[in-house]
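so my prof wants the structure for this chain in the tokens format not the other one, which i didnt know existed until like an hour ago. anyway here's the sequence
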Amino acid sequence: MSKHAHLGDLNPEFEQIRSKRVGQTIGVLLLALSALALVNLISTDNVVVPVLLFAILFLSFAFYVLRQGQTQIAAILTLLVMFICIAQAMWSGSGLRSSALLVFPAAQLFALIMIGKRAFYLSYFGMMAFMGILLTANTQGWRVGVENMIGYRWMLDFGILLTAATFVMRVLATDLLAMLAALRIEMTEITQSRIAAEHLANHDTLTGLPNRRMAEQYFSDMFDQAMQERSGMALIFVDVDNFKDVNDSHGHQCGDDLLKHIGQAISSQLRRTDRLTRIAGDEFLILLPGVSVSHDVELILRKIKHSVSMPVTLEGETLSPTLSMGIALAPAHGDDFKGLLSKADQALYQAKAAGRNRYHYFQPTLL
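here's what i got, hopefully its the right format
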């Protein structure tokens, strides 16, 4: 089975295009050979006419085979006719300077796309071998060509063959461009799918915020930068106060809307370099780079508390949410993400135990 036959089995649309292009090639060759036969009859050069008529009949048979659904066989027959016509025109015409050679690149392109690599190389080596035979025939006097032919015959032969070759190359190149365009679209879709998959893997589906996996990556980048700048950073573990009561009293949709609202409220108060992530449920994590003292952190936390506590109406219910927050500082409290997250969680527990709606710093003495 050839490469293209296999592709045809996998892609019926490709096979339809291939069959159409073979048919178009046969049609244009029939027109070109008929025109050449007419030119030779008018000029009373009847030597080549039988060959042209034979080629026309052979192409007609190829077209019949194509209509029977045998695209591969029809393409092989068409290539064979092209090769024979080129060889005959070179032999009886201008030899190695024959205008028939103009058709050979189109025949090569046809062989490669419509049949396969094997036909491409066979036709190439066949032409090279024929050119060697032709050269030998010239030097040995086995043939007498018309290398010095001038006048309208040269123009007509040249024009007809050039037109046929141009058409074949044009339709085949059009298919190549269409396939490349389809490939670009497919690659774009694959890239977009990969980006979407990566986004889903790294972000919370409800709030759209980065998830814990991204939080760890953010921490790594921020901590390295802080060490270079000899500054510090803060991890703030955030928990929504009485969130279970909201779910139980007003429904899960209201709870989901509240989480999205809180995510937006916190984000609106953060600096461009800060990061907000959702860890799980009603738990968020804020990463603040470039903070060295508690005062830097508290300025941001006070703005967050104020923004979140503003009354908001969700699902017909007016809520005034509050947050409890635990704070761990790096490198003062450690340099490991999991360890600092655990310490911020401990500080959060202390904030909730102290009455909620407040923030608390990690204190080693609490261990």
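also thought this was worth mentioning. The two ends are 74 Å apart (CA to CA).
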